[in-house]
Specification:
Produces ATP from ADP in the presence of a proton gradient across the membrane. The V-type beta chain is a regulatory subunit. By secondary structure, this protein is an alpha/beta fold. Helix content is 33%, strand content 24%. The chain is built from twelve helices and 22 strands. Strands 9, 11, 14, 16, 17, 18, 19, 20, 21 and 22 form a ten-stranded mixed sheet that branches. Strands 1-7-4-5-6-3-2 form a seven-stranded antiparallel sheet, with no helix packed on it. The protein has a three-stranded antiparallel sheet with strand order 13-12-15, with no helix packed on it. Helix 2 (157-167) packs parallel to helix 3, helix 4 crosses helix 5 (250-263) and helix 9 (365-389) crosses helix 11.
């Protein structure tokens, strides 16, 4: 029988100090039993000799130092996993909240997982179609990649996340595809939006949804992404599925990390965030990837809102170091009515070259991608000159590029939240836009491709 301790020394908010404890380890789960028989879950945050600091998952109201008792469970937090998780909604600690029956687990897995051995990693090289032209055509997502979306307060990253979750698919294969969606620190309204959005389109049948609300405890917010990644690892490496993990909002997760660090009176780092935040984020992000000898894969899209639209803020800054690129949303494009407002020029997918070309997307993909980037960049410069010097100061070819830039934003980038474009449609649309320019300007595309595609009616 587990030892019970009646040695609670101090309660400070969600933190409880217990003395005279033996054999307890970091991250171990415990239960505090109140005088009236109620129980409160907790997790070990710090072990100092025989003193243990635990954090409650629920309120500390009603805990009496002399009458309450603590016992530890001898294990870290686990998630009961099963193929039946698909189509279900869970809270941040793995409890069913969709009104359906409890999951009968095939096994239980430690949510902290283990880092993937770099030697066991297989290099990402297969295309994942999101149905969004600005991503598929220009910043391609590759199976096993970590590609974050950098958003900001007030921008429609929730709608973009839901759209990717609904539309994402693996092309040209019969292999099973699933989405694990983790929402952290969101409102009831956002939670309802995500759930209804997936149900209306039938995407819920292949989705596992973890929801942590804004009024849930900070310690639960820390466990939510780990729950999601544990479910993803089970589906990918035990059930041989290709899994896309979408996590929103990483900023809420990092704020919870800062809150817990401040409660523990740790020395703060940049902007008050703990100095180990880089390590903590890396432990999550690096659980994505492919493994030699495993058919399944985990691809990750973490979404974060940059405080004050600042790319140098610690959260986007550290995320950019760990991941393979970033998709950046633009407030200027959003104000001009572009949906989704993806700013393609500063966005980058470092692995896009590995997932495109003949046999994956189409042979002309790389060439047209480079040409679209170059033409759009020159068009933006022409429009800036037009603002400063006036339209009369521009040459005829500059005016054509300016027109191209406007058409590119209106037709290619802006496609709405309901349009699902296949990669062939995206590539054909790119050629339609390139025909605005004279053939002599298309210097990044081989003549053979121009003969095949540019001259086509």
């Amino acid at each position: 029988m587990a030892t019970e301790y009646r040695t609670i020394q101090e309660v400070a908010g969600p933190l409880v100090l217990v003395s005279g404890v033996e054999g307890v380890t970091y991250n171990e789960l415990g239960e505090i039993t109140l005088a009236d028989g109620q129980t409160r879950r907790c997790k070990v945050l710090e072990v100092d000799g025989t003193n243990v600091l635990v954090q409650l998952f629920e309120s500390s109201t009603g805990i009496n130092l002399s009458d309450s008792k603590v016992h530890f469970l001898g294990r870290a937090m686990e998630l009961g996993v099963s193929g039946d998780m698909l189509g279900r909604v869970f809270d941040g600690v793995g409890g069913v909240i969709d009104g359906g029956p409890e999951i009968l687990p095939e096994t239980r897995m430690d949510i902290n997982g283990r880092p993937m051995n770099p030697y066991a990693r297989s290099y990402p090289s297969e295309f994942i179609q999101t149905g969004i032209s600005a991503i598929d055509g220009l910043n391609t997502l590759v199976r096993g990649q970590k590609l974050p979306i950098f958003s900001a307060s007030g921008l429609p990253h929730a709608q973009l996340a839901a759209q990717i979750a609904r539309q994402a698919k693996v092309l040209g294969t019969e292999e099973e595809f699933a989405v694990v969606f983790a929402a952290m620190g969101i409102t009831y309204e956002e939670a309802h939006y995500f759930e209804e959005s997936f149900k209306e389109t039938g995407a819920i049948d292949r989705t596992v949804l973890f929801v942590n609300l804004a009024n849930d405890p900070a310690v639960e917010r820390i466990s939510t992404p780990r729950m999601a990644l544990t479910a993803a690892e089970y589906l990918a490496f035990e059930k041989d599925m290709h899994v896309l993990v979408i996590m929103t909002d990483i900023t809420n997760y990092a704020d919870a990390l800062r809150e817990i660090s401040a409660a523990r009176k740790e020395v703060p780092g940049r902007r008050g965030y703990p100095g180990y935040m880089y390590t903590d984020l890396a432990q999550m992000y690096e659980r994505a990837g492919r493994q030699h000898g495993k058919r399944g894969s985990i691809t990750m899209i973490p979404i974060l809102s940059m405080p004050e639209d600042d790319k140098t803020h610690p959260i986007p800054d550290l995320t950019g170091y760990i991941t393979e690129g970033q998709i950046i949303l633009s407030r200027e494009l959003y104000r001009s009515g572009v949906t989704p407002p993806i700013d393609v020029l500063p966005s980058l997918s470092r692995l896009k070259d590995k997932g495109i070309g003949g046999g994956k997307t189409r042979a002309d993909h790389a060439a047209t991608m480079n040409q679209l980037f170059a033409a759009y960049a020159r068009g933006k410069e022409a429009k800036e000159l037009m603002v400063i010097l006036g339209e009369a100061a521009l040459t005829d070819i500059d005016l054509i590029y300016a027109k191209f830039s406007e058409e590119f934003e209106a037709r290619y980038v802006s496609q709405g939240n309901e349009t699902d474009r296949g990669i062939q449609e995206t590539l054909d649309l790119g050629w339609d836009l390139l025909r605005i320019l004279p053939r002599s300007e298309l210097k990044r595309i081989p003549d053979a491709m121009l003969d095949e595609y540019y001259e086509k009616d």
